[in-house]
Amino acid sequence: MTERVVQFGDNNRLHGIMNIGGSNDRPTILLFNAGIVHRIGAHRLNVKLARNLADQGYNSIRFDLSGLGDSAPAPSGLGYEEQAIADIASAMDRMVQEAGAHAFVAIGMCSGADNAYRAALSDQRLRGLILLDPYAYENPAAALENVIARATDIDRWKRKAKKIVGLEKTEPATPVSATPVSVPSDDDDDQARPIPPLEEFGSDLEELCNQGTRIYTIYTGFVKRQITKPEQFFSTFASYDFKNAIDVDVFPAFDHTYTDLSAQEVLFAKISDWLGNVFPPGAEIIDE
Q: Domains of the chain by range and CATH?
């Protein structure tokens, strides 16, 4: 494995790290920002993933999108989504030039998943997507399961009781100049970004499947109110034909950013297995 700093895109605005030395009979992996998090990823997930996959023969590039991390803002005036798509295309162009890549898989978390699937809609070099906590939509079975879990969660009721007792105590008056602080509670919505209508996301996924893109979707407890089991995903999107091109795993016990090392190990193993099964060395899909 060889790691090298690289600059690319117009005026070399974009910065990243290439892992090269793998085989081109495997897809090249793209890793980039989740929200405003630097390209290394939460808990260095992108770094660990890139190196883990390099040991298995995958080339990769992890990079910052325009205006994030080490990459300069774009002068083009494109909107955020359009610029992210352009940046991802630039990263693929550089890996084609540098390592002869000709098929790609993007791994994106949260808003990174959103950028990944939009990029795949416009660039069919992206033959695979690994989406970590992409958009999730409420499923009746998951909603009922969540209600029951919350109603029977003794620790949750203890926390609420402590809050009520605390309110009964006399508190000093809050200075007029003080700024109220909002503290997230366990009653807050799970997803923290705008969610498009289900029909829009479902149609986009169906289009990707129609063009031959393979998709692996992994959900965590971050969206436990919307999905807790893989079958709920497929029942939510029952009116769409995904042509068996989407695989789903759900890990309700894992937090959104895979803080625990044991959760990271499971994630890496799942990604490695999926890539090996869907894109085995020499598979025809790589050469299309």
A: 2-138+198-287 (3.40.50.1820)
